[in-house]
Amino acid sequence: MNDQLRFVDSGEAADLAAFLGRLVHYDRAAAVRLQAGGGALAVFGRPPSFDILAIRTVRLAAPVATPLDLTVSAGELLEAVDETSAAAVVPGPVTGPPWAGVLPPRGGWRQVPGLPGPEAMGAAVAAAVSEFRARDEALPVQHRTRSERDRIGREIWSRTLGDTELPLRAVHAAQSLGFLRPVRAAVPAPASLPDAPAPVALLAAGTWLRLRTPYGSVAMRRPGVTGGLGALQVRPV
Question: Is a pLDDT exceeding 50 seen at residue 235?
Answer without folding.
Answer: no
